[in-house]
Amino acid sequence: MNDIQIQFGKISKKYDEQRPKLIPCFFDFYYLPLVLMKTDNPEPRILDVGAGTGLFSSIVLTKFPKAKITLVDVTEKMLDIAKDRFKGNDNITFLRKDITNVDEETSKSFEKKFDFVISGLAIHHLTTDEKKYVYGKCFEWLKEGGLFINADQVISPDPVLEAQNIELWHNKIRESGIGEEAIDNLKERMKLDKLECLAIKIPLTSKIE
After folding, report:
1. CA–CA separation, 15 vs 136, rounded Å?
2. Model pTM?
3. Per-residue pLDDT tens for 142-179?
């Protein structure tokens, strides 16, 4: 079990209730991607990478209630929450797997399969090489004309601006009323982040053929 599994396993039961408090722009962050998700298929196939508790997928279902969604995550406790959330929905499948090291059989079964590949606040935990691998796989798994949406966080290339952003964010989450224990736990999880600025992140996708 790696550090990500340990840290997110600890907060799996509180993850969803804390999201609106830890993300001041919560509703824009999760609902604006729906505007980009356009298809004539009333039952699109969707892959949720680093799906966690299924929060992002549950929001996508408000637009595509008949969508066939595959949730992939490495942390069993997070997927357990997702399974409970989608209980009774036979269009939802779950796969516990490390997305940075997908076996050939699974990868082949996903090729050109999905109308959308989505990911919410997950890929920033990966190293640069792991990001390249995951981006490449996501594009392999999309149908022709499909769309990859990575709703994630980046850092400013200017350290001063980044420090100001962090200070503003901490002030906002304290205003939400969330407890100091939750903030301390967040800081521990943030130690696992491998954030990059857009100047680095954009070429990772643009170089994928």
Report:
1. 29
2. 0.89
3. 999 999 999 999 899 999 999 999 999 989 999 999 98
